[in-house]
Amino acid sequence: MKTFLYRYLWLGKMLSIFMEIFYLFAVFSCVYKERHSFFDLAIITFLIMMGRNLGNTLASTSFRLNIALLFSAKSVFILIAYYLLSEHSLYIVLPTIVLSAIDGYIKYQSNRPYLSITKREEIATVGGFQSFIDQITMIIGWLLSITLFVQVNSFGLLIITCLLGLICCLIYSSSPKNKNRMVQKAGDVRQPFQSFKNRISFLFMIDMIFNVAWVSSMIFALVENHLKQGIVWWGIFNSTYILGMLMVHFIINKYHMFFAYRRLKVQFFLTILTILFIAVFAFNVNIYLSLFLILFFGFSQQLKEKILYTELIKQMDIQTISNFHQRLSIQSSFVISVCVLCAGWMADHFGIQAIYLITGLVSCLSLPFYISEMRKQAA
């Protein structure tokens, strides 16, 4: 029964991820085709992140909605988006905010059933496996979106997304219920963030700003404006970045002791390589070299974040971990979304190269921390 429930929930979650990717692909292609402005794409990215934050926050309170009904509501708003996009691309703002808020709520609530059927000592393993499966699903989603876009264009993608919403509605309305809910005590998650001077928190902040370079709208600007490639290559670049993140799971499983004892050296070395490679990436016009570099950036960022997560989790007990992840997700989304607005304006006025050079300079700020910590270890 438990295995069946896992698979049933995973099917719904997989289709939900496909919906997000298909919608983003369709909206970006329509808006850019009409407006030719990276700032407009940055505004849409900002609205998506803020909407998800709103939904995430509502889901973390006692406010409860039926997930199956939310998926049916998503299908309705996608149809509204379909009509508005056919009239004017910027009319998409309102349905995008609503859909993103629904996504944020669903994403938070859809993880709760996993906790209800998972033993406490298995939470870390199940969480890692979910992350692994989600990344595979995202790669498949981006590749599918490319294929479908070529066949049925943006508006056809929206219709398919609407149908997926109805299927998700059926899945969640008929999913088996599990009554053995795990009760988690609310912990204080402010401890790791009490001071901005906290080393690890500051490193997280640097990584958040650096991640602006890899949000979908910035990769879109790189592919369209700098590499002079079509929207199909945008999907390929997104899936390649996620593939780099996926590789971390295999590397850590095989060499976890190596990273455990040399975490600072690994972070320092990866940061140096990232700074050097991003300078090459900003001016390179070879599509295949860019693919290799973005694969490395996905791998590097995911590995550094996993090391930082491990350090932060050591500072708290297991009861606070769930709340901590939600708080960190909200903080990350807020910082990145504000930076994306600035980056979109800069991409229109100074070119996408300026964004990558600035993020490379921001990464330099973390080097003194690594050097200081390595000296302390050596002393």
Automatic annotation (TrEMBL):
Gene3D superfamilies xrefs: MFS general substrate transporter like domains
Superkingdom classification of source: Bacteria
SUPFAM superfamilies the record matches: MFS general substrate transporter
Signal sequence bounds: none
Main location: membrane
InterPro entries for the chain: MFS_trans_sf (IPR036259)
Transmembrane segments: 12-32, 38-55, 67-85, 91-108, 129-149, 155-172, 200-219, 231-252, 264-281, 353-371
Keywords from the named record: Cell membrane, Membrane, Transmembrane, Transmembrane helix
Location(s), subcellular: Cell membrane
One Gene Ontology term, aspect cellular component: plasma membrane
Protein name per Swiss-Prot or TrEMBL: MFS transporter
Species of provenance: Heyndrickxia oleronia
